[in-house]
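re: ur question from yesterday

yeah so i grabbed the chain u mentioned. its 114 aa long if i counted rite. heres the sequnce exactly as i have it in my notes:
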Amino acid sequence: MIVREDRPWGSFEVLYEEEGMKVKRIIVKPGKRLSLQSHTNRTENWLVVSGSAFMHLDNKKIYLLENQTVFIPKEARHRIENIGSEDLVFVEVQRGSYLGEDDIVRYEDDFNRV
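ran it thru and got these structure tokens back, copy pasting raw so excuse formatting
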């Protein structure tokens, strides 16, 4: 069963989940970005399916295009922003001991979430 959740920046669907791994399809609307965040219990791999993005990964600034990937270690501060005029679509593979949505430490957020 695919679980979909809407967010102020777009939406995500959980495509697959098992112990220690979760796969999501994430859509970011044009001009929107996720919060600057980190995770204590998981790593993430992102693959851009379509669109273009600007990403912060700790102190690095990365420009991502279709078919490019990035690895996000545990506790790394990261954020992705859709800099195009179409939806940004990417697949996120989470690996770790805990994969709940509450494993997010937010440092900055355009939507005033804590």
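noticed a couple things. The chain is about 0% helix and 60% strand. also Residues 54 and 80 are 6 Å apart (CA to CA).
anyway ttyl
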